[in-house]
C-alpha cells in the first residue's frame, strides 16, 4: 500500500495557485520526481477560540489513532474471513480507498462543516465507535458459533476419550454388552488409553479399595443366633472391612480405536448405612453414594468415566445437528463479511474527515487568521519517502535559527509546514 503525505502551507496573501505550484515543484516535478500530487480541498470550518483549537489539537491526534484502529480491525476481520486477501474487495463509496483519498471531497450532508469543531469531532468519533461496538458483538457471536462447531466436530471425530459414544457404538456392538442399572448396581463405561490397557485390566477390581464398607456383625463371639434377625445397631463396624465397589469379573471390552479402549464395568453405586437406636431414639440410616468418589479414583489413574446412555437414534440426530451448525457458521461468516465490506467505507470516511480537521486546526494554529492556506496530497513513490520529506523541508521550509529548528517541545519531528503522513 502506498504512503500518502498531506502538506499545507500558508498562501502568504498570494493566490492559492502559487502555493500549489510551489508544492508541486518541491516534490512532484521532473526535477524532483518523488511523488504524485493531488489537490486536497479543506472546507471552511468553524474556527472558534484559540484555546478550543489548542485543546482540540491534542485530542485530534488520539482520535485519529482510535479511528484508524477501527478501520484496521474491520480490514483484518474481512481478510481473515475471506479465502485470500485478493478476494476481498473493500471499497469506500463504491471506489477503491486510494481513489477515494485522491478524489477526496468533504461530505457536508453527513458532517455539516458549519458545526463547532468539537461537536464535529465528537460526531465523527461517535459514529466510528458505534461501528466498532457492532463489530465486537458480531465477531463475538461468530466466534462462539465457530467454537460450538469445533466442539461438535471434536465430539464426533475424536477418540474414545472425547467422542460422542452414540456416534461410534452401533447396535451390533451394544447388543453384546450386558448393562445393569438398579438402585444399587450400575454399569459404567470407562475409556482407557491403549498404553494403560494392561494396567487397567490387572487392577480395575482394586480401584477405590477404601470406598465401600463390607463389615458386619462379629458372629465369632456368639454364633448361636447366626442368620437370625438381630439388632446390633451402632455396635457393628460397617467399615472394619473395606473394598472396591467394582463387581468382580464384570469387565467387558466394548470397543477400541487407534488410541484408546472402552470398557464396561459394573459397580456398587451406593450403600445403605442402617439406622440404630441410641438412648431410646432411632437414628435414621443414610445412603452413601460411591459413583463420584469412584470416578475420581479412576481419573487419578488416567482412566476416564464416560457418561453415556445408549440411544440408537442419537447418531443421526448428532449428524443433523452438526450439519445445522455448519450452515449457521457459514451464514454468519457471510453476513459478517458483508457487514465488513459495508462498514469499512463508513469507518474510512470518518478517518479521512478527522485528518482533514487536523490539517485545518494545525494550519490555523500555525499560520493564524484569517484562514489562508493551501493543502495538497502526495502519493509517495516506492522508497522515496525520505527523499520527498527532505525536499519539502528544503523547498518549503523557512530560514530559522537553531532554536526554532528544534520544533515544539515533545515533538519527535518538526517541519516549517503542516504535514500528516499515513498509509491507507
Summarize this, please?
By secondary structure, this protein is of the alpha+beta class.
The Rg value, from CA coordinates, equals: 39 Å
The residue fraction in helices comes out at 40-55%
| Global mean pLDDT | 88
Strand order of the largest sheet: 4-17-1-18
Q: Report the structural category.
A: alpha+beta
The coarse overall form would be elongated
Number of contiguous helices? 10
Strand percent estimate: 15-25%
Low-confidence stretches: 399-411
Describe this protein's structure.
With 424 residues, this protein is an alpha+beta fold. Helix content is 43%, strand content 18%. The protein contains ten helices and 18 strands. It has helices at residues 16-27, 50-81, 97-102, 117-157, 171-175, 197-203, 291-300, 314-367, 385-396, 402-405, and strands at residues 4-10, 28-29, 32-33, 35-39, 91-92, 95-96, 185-193, 212-213, 242-243, 252-256, 260-268, 270-273, 276-278, 281-283, 286-289, 304-306, 373-380, 418-422. The strands form seven sheets. The protein has a four-stranded antiparallel β-sheet with strand order 4-17-1-18, sandwiched between helices. Strands 10-11-7-16 form a four-stranded antiparallel β-sheet. Strands 2-3 form a two-stranded antiparallel ribbon. A hairpin with a 2-residue loop joins strand 13 (276-278) and strand 14 (281-283). Helix 1 crosses helix 9, helix 2 runs parallel beside helix 4 and helix 2 (50-81) runs antiparallel to helix 8. The longest helix is centred in the last third of the chain and has 54 residues, at 314-367. The chain is elongated and about 130 Å long. The N and C termini lie close together (7 Å).
Amino acid at each position: 500500500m502506498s504512503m500518502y503525505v498531506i502538506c499545507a502551507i500558508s498562501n502568504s496573501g498570494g493566490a492559492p495557485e502559487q502555493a500549489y505550484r510551489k508544492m508541486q515543484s518541491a516534490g512532484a516535478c521532473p526535477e524532483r520526481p518523488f511523488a504524485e500530487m493531488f489537490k486536497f480541498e479543506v472546507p471552511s470550518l468553524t474556527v472558534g477560540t484559540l484555546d478550543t483549537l489548542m485543546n482540540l489539537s491534542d485530542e485530534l491526534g488520539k482520535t485519529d489513532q482510535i479511528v484508524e484502529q477501527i478501520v484496521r480491525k474491520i480490514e483484518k476481520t474481512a481478510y481473515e474471513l475471506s479465502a485470500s486477501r485478493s478476494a476481498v474487495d473493500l471499497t469506500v463509496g463504491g471506489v477503491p480507498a486510494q481513489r477515494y483519498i485522491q478524489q477526496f471531497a468533504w461530505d457536508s450532508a453527513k458532517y455539516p462543516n458549519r458545526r463547532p469543531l468539537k461537536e464535529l469531532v465528537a460526531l465523527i468519533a461517535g459514529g466510528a465507535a458505534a461501528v466498532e461496538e457492532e463489530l465486537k458483538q458480531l465477531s463475538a457471536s461468530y466466534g462462539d458459533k465457530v467454537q460450538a462447531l469445533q466442539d461438535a466436530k471434536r465430539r464426533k471425530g475424536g477418540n474414545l476419550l472425547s467422542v460422542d459414544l452414540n456416534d461410534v457404538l452401533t447396535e451390533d456392538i451394544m447388543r453384546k454388552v450386558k448393562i445393569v442399572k438398579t438402585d444399587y448396581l450400575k454399569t459404567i463405561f470407562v475409556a482407557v488409553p491403549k498404553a494403560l490397557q494392561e494396567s487397567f485390566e490387572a487392577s480395575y477390581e482394586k480401584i477405590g479399595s477404601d470406598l465401600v464398607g463390607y463389615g458386619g456383625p462379629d458372629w465369632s463371639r456368639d454364633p448361636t443366633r447366626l442368620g437370625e434377625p438381630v439388632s446390633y445397631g451402632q455396635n457393628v463396624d460397617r467399615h472394619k472391612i473395606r473394598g472396591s465397589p467394582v463387581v468382580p469379573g464384570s469387565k467387558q471390552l466394548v470397543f477400541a480405536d487407534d488410541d484408546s479402549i472402552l470398557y464396561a464395568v459394573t459397580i456398587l453405586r451406593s450403600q445403605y448405612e442402617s439406622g440404630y437406636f441410641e438412648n431410646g431414639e432411632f437414628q435414621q440410616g443414610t445412603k452413601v453414594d460411591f459413583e463420584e468418589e469412584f470416578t475420581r479414583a479412576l481419573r487419578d489413574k488416567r482412566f476416564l468415566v464416560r457418561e453415556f446412555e445408549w440411544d440408537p437414534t442419537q447418531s443421526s440426530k448428532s449428524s443433523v445437528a452438526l450439519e445445522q451448525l455448519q450452515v449457521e457458521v457459514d451464514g454468519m461468516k457471510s453476513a459478517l463479511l458483508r457487514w465488513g465490506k459495508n462498514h469499512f467505507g463508513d469507518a474510512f470516511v470518518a478517518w479521512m474527515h478527522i485528518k482533514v480537521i487536523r490539517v485545518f486546526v494545525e494550519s490555523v494554529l500555525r499560520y493564524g487568521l484569517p484562514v489562508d492556506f493551501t493543502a495538497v496530497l502526495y502519493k509517495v513513490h516506492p522508497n522515496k519517502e525520505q527523499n520527498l520529506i527532505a525536499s519539502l523541508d528544503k523547498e518549503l521550509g523557512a530560514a530559522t535559527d537553531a532554536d526554532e529548528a528544534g520544533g515544539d517541545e515533545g515533538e519527535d519531528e518538526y517541519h516549517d509546514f503542516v504535514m500528516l503522513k499515513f498509509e491507507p
